[in-house]
Structures are given as structure tokens and as C-alpha cells.
Amino acid sequence: MSLLRVESVSKRFGGITANQDVSFEVGAGKIVGLIGPNGAGKTTMFNCIAGYAPPTTGEIWMNDIKVSGMSPEQCARAGIGRTFQVARTFTSMTALENVMVGAFLINKNVADARQSAAKLLSFVNLGQFKDKPAGSMTISEQRRLAVARALAVRPRLLLMDEVMAGLNPTEVKETVDVVLKIREEGISCLIVEHVLEGIMPIADAIVVLDYGKKIAEGSPEQVSNDPKVIAAYLGDE
Ligand code: ATP
């Protein structure tokens, strides 16, 4: 069953078409990778889904709720969580306080927010950083911290923007393990990623954008053998 439905979404900025007539779905409890060369329109699609930049045309649905046109807060209430390409951690606050920022939106009570934030830190394997300033953590740890903060709002769909970029193979594996745990919790993940060796082995489906258009969709194997995808990645113009 589909949780998220993106229906014929186009997004234009003046004369630039960042997304053109893009449709795809994310099933409940599935991991979907959104890939494509630089400038293909992946982050713009995230911004459309999460309410940061409404589609110019087309519609986006979470189950029976039309989220296109809603504010980021309303999208969050509809179950859409997200991380950003540049992890927006509060560097002078502790890891626990960073996650509590998200938890406060759900738990009004400080003790409950603290407890739920502590559980989430352990969930992303950062329990040992509870009382450390976020600024003292590695980029990889800060990305997982941002994931914990997004999870604190209890999304049904988590949008992750390049959480594996620039990480070493051990860090990619740690991140992949967390993504798999998120799916085990029944939360769907839509992941923008350039690190194909991270996303391909775990994705239930891959959607490929190029110049704003969807050029392929299917299993990781189907997509990686698709001549259009190979041409897009090799810069065959
Ligand atoms: P990358 O992999 O490099 O992060 P991307 O696939 O996420 O790229 P987008 O950032 O969505 O691509 O950009 C798609 C196109 O839309 C680009 O040509 C970009 O310059 C343009 N674009 C994105 N946001 C804006 C904006 N706010 N105003 C004008 N143009 C924009």
C-alpha cells in the first residue's frame, strides 16, 4: 500500500524547471532511493514533499491527506519528517538537547521529552554522546543526530538528504544499519543519495531523476542496468 504519492509534480523557479511531471510512490515501510546527477531536482522534490517549496503543478498525498500546498509544520503533522543536506545541528547544545528540540513537539512534559530523546539517541547508536556538545561529534555522527531529531517528531515517512555523502565505508555501514532499523520500525524512508553503494543494496525501489524528469524507476537491479540511467551518470548528452 502506498503511503506517499507524488502525482505529476512540476516545480519551476522563474525560467528554471527543477522538476517536470514527476510521479512516484513510496509504500508503507519501504526504503526508496531518489538518485540522479547533480542538479537533477532531488532536493527540490524533497522541498516540495516537505512543504518548503510548493509544487507549481501536480499533487502530493500522504494516504488520504493532500500535503501539497501545506506548510512544513502541517506536513510534519501529516507524518513527514526530514533531514537536510547540511545537517542543521545546534553545535553548542548537547546531543540529547538537540533531539529534545524535536521531542518537545510531541511531549509537552520535559521528563517525557528527555526520556524519548535518550531512547532515540540509543536507537541511532549515539547513546554515549548524550551529554556531549553536538559540535564535538563527527559529520557522520551529526547526520545520525539529525536523523534522531527528525524521528523524535514520530514521522511515518522520513526524507533523508545525502546522509552518506563524504563518509568512509565504516561510517556508511553505520548509517545503513540505522536506516534498516528505521524500516524495521515500519517507517518509510525516501533517501536522496549520491553514495550508490550505500543505497542500492538496501532500497526496495529506486527512482532516477535527470534534468528534472523521472527517467527510470524500479528495483535497484533494474535501474542499474537501464541504459538511460547509465547514460545519465556517464554524462552522455
Ligand atoms: P545535487 O545533487 O547537486 O544536490 P539536486 O538533484 O538536489 O542536485 P536541485 O538542488 O533540486 O538538484 O536543483 C535542481 C535545479 O533547480 C538546479 O538547476 C538548481 O539550480 C535549480 N534550483 C533549485 N532551487 C532553486 C531556487 N530556489 N531558485 C532557483 N533555482 C533553483
From TrEMBL:
PROSITE patterns: ABC_TRANSPORTER_2. This is ABC transporter ATP-binding protein. Gene3D superfamilies: P-loop containing nucleotide triphosphate hydrolases (3.40.50.300). GO terms for molecular function: ATP binding. PANTHER family: AMINO ACID ABC TRANSPORTER ATP-BINDING PROTEIN, CONSERVED COMPONENT OF ABC TRANSPORTER FOR NATURAL AMINO ACIDS-RELATED. CDD domains: ABC_Mj1267_LivG_branched. It holds the Pfam family ABC_tran. Residues 4-236 form the ABC transporter domain. The keyword Nucleotide-binding applies. It comes from Undibacterium hunanense. Keywords: ATP-binding, Cell membrane, Membrane, Nucleotide-binding, Transport. It comes from the Bacteria. InterPro entries: AAA+_ATPase, ABC_AA/LPS_Transport, ABC_transporter-like_ATP-bd, BCA_ABC_TP_C, P-loop_NTPase.
